[in-house]
Structure formats: structure tokens, C-alpha cells
Amino acid sequence: MTAAWQKKEGKSPSGGLNEKGRASLRAQGQNIKKPVTSSEASKSPAAAARRDNFRSRMCGMKEKLTSAKTAHDPNSRINLALKRWDVKC
């Protein structure tokens, strides 16, 4: 049986996972949290550090692990996740 985070029902149309997808990952023992936007990061140093870590990790993945077509496609999962986190690469 496939977990919700791997299927469409667990993915948010605006990028990343929705609450159902995050719940299915938590059931598998993962510690996953909601995305941190720039306004949330300005209120908490811990959230800002988490956001910076995400940005460096995902921008590196976008650079090295995606094709040219995927890197410039606004509807690719990686670009939607970066948009959801309000991050520019």
C-alpha cells in the first residue's frame, strides 16, 4: 500500500505536501513540519535557520538534479515547493 505523501491526495497543488501527506509521513516516523515563509522566518531565528537550510538544499538539487526543462517549468514539484517556501534560487 502506498502512503498518502507519495500520491496526489497527499500533495498540495501549490507545492509541497498538504496536512494529509505530512500526517502519513509522521505515521512512518518522520518529523516533518509546515513550510516556513519569509514573514514567519522574521519572527523566529530557528525558523529562519530552517528556511535557509531548505533553500540551500533545494537550490542545489534544482541546479544539479533537474533537467533544463524541469528547472524552468513553473509547475514542476521542485519549483512549486520553492514558491511555497517563498524562496528564490
Short description:
The chain has 89 residues and is an all-alpha fold. It has five helices and no strands.
Describe the structure.
The protein has 89 residues and is mostly helical. The protein has one domain (4-84). 53% of the residues lie in helices and 0% in strands. It contains 5 helices and no strands. 11% of the residues are buried.
Rough outline = globular
Could you estimate the helical fraction of the residues in percent? 40-55%
Proportion in β-strands = under 5%
Helix-strand string: HHHHH
Provide the gyration radius in Å.
14 Å
- Separate helix tally: 5
Low-pLDDT stretches: none
Number of individual domains: 1
Termini Cα gap = 36 Å
Number of strands: 0
For the residues shown, what is the average pLDDT? 89
Instruction: Tell me about the largest β-sheet.
Output: none
Instruction: Give me the secondary-structure category.
Output: mainly alpha
